[in-house]
Design goal:
This protein is mainly alpha-helical. It contains eight helices and two strands. The longest helix is centred in the N-terminal third of the chain and has 15 residues. It is globular. One of its GO terms (biological process) is endosomal transport.
């Protein structure tokens, strides 16, 4: 749904599949989403996977962090993303996200701040990684955590 040529997608797959097993693990998937986002913004794809994308695991100090997204959470967020990205390939529009996020019954100010944090590129729509980031922020806020002042590192990697 990204609208990218098959050659670009094949190259992204080869780069993102860090262990070359022909499958994308959750970390591989985040790598792929990041590369798709860069390419959709007109940037050239790298010939080799950049070092900063190779090591996505959160630092040990973040192991108990509420901002760390589990594999199960990421899978659930991606299912919701696929259901809501139907009209805009590779992204969820602001209107679709607004309707979805308002179901959380969080205050409008919290939802606005979550949108600002998650919409990394400021294009008014959420890519899969940005959407997962927003969903996790909503979930954490509903669990009683304050919306952070800046995007936690654990989520910045996922949203990229």
């Amino acid at each position: 749904r990204s609208g990218l040529p098959e050659a670009d997608l094949a190259h992204i797959w080869r780069l993102a599949d860090a262990d070359n097993d022909g499958q994308l693990s959750p970390d591989d998937f985040v790598r792929a989403l990041h590369l798709v986002s860069l390419r959709r913004q007109g940037m050239d794809l790298p010939k080799e996977l950049p070092e900063e994308l190779l090591h996505l695991a959160p630092a040990p100090s973040a192991a108990g962090s509420p901002w760390a997204v589990t594999d199960g959470q990421l899978s659930a967020y991606m299912r919701v993303f696929q259901a809501h990205a139907a009209g805009t390939p590779g992204a969820v529009t602001a209107l679709a996200a607004k309707d979805l996020f308002e179901r959380s019954q969080l205050p409008q100010g919290d939802l606005s701040r979550i949108w600002q944090l998650a919409d990394i590129d400021g294009d008014g729509q959420l890519t899969a990684g940005e959407f997962a980031c927003a969903m996790h922020l909503v979930s954490c806020r509903r669990d009683g955590f304050d919306v952070p002042a800046s995007l936690p590192e654990e989520l910045a990697v996922a949203a990229a």
